[in-house]
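User: structure tokens for this one?
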Amino acid sequence: MTVEIPADLAPFVQRLIAERRFLTEGDVLAEGLRLLQSQEALRAAVREGFSQLDEGRSVPAAEVFAKAREHIQSAERARRA
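Assistant:
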């Protein structure tokens, strides 16, 4: 596949390579596509969440926050170990 980088983005891409954040233009493009893929997955998850709310399926906020705290504490313990 051949891709042409728009002229207004070329200096940005070249700076990323010069700073050794990426090795090639292809690496920059691949990372951009990964970010778009993540963004699309997040949009789908948000749509699904709103659909669940519309259907009356929800979790109390206190439960969500408690699970989030547990997850954070677990991650911090694992990081310290």
